[in-house]
Amino acid sequence: MEESALVNSWIARGKEIGKEIGKEIGSVEEARRTVLRLGAKRFGGATPTVSMVIQTMSDRGRLERIVDRIFDAASWDDLLTTE
Predict the structure, then answer these.
(1) Residues 43-57: what's their mean pLDDT?
(2) 3-state SS assignment for residue 82
């Protein structure tokens, strides 16, 4: 069976897209862990509600802004108002 150059290019592009998506998912998960870890040092452990809110966040930019505010925020609730 002869391989098609077009099909092979689609497969290669699909692998590239999959890697990009995987990296983005991984960076979001790492940002969530960072918020929870640093927040716990600053405010004490997150309540189940706070933890759930953070675990459902998918905007990496917002998570990074939250990390930047950890030492300026007054509480978990204050921290979660970060847009």
Answers:
(1) 96
(2) coil
pLDDT digits (tens, 9 = 90+) for 1-38: 567 877 778 887 888 888 888 888 889 999 999 999 99
Q: How many angstroms separate the most distant Cα atoms in the chain?
A: 66
Cβ-in-10-Å burial (0-12, 13-18, 19+) of 66 comes to buried
Residues 6+ apart with CB under 8 A from 34: 63, 67
Tokens 């918020």, residue located: 35
Q: How many CB atoms lie within 10 A of CB 29?
A: 14
Read off the amino acid at residue 76. Answer: W
Q: What is the pTM of this model?
A: 0.78
Amino acid residing at 4? S
H or E stretch covering 39: helix 5-43
Instruction: State residue 15's pLDDT score.
Output: 82
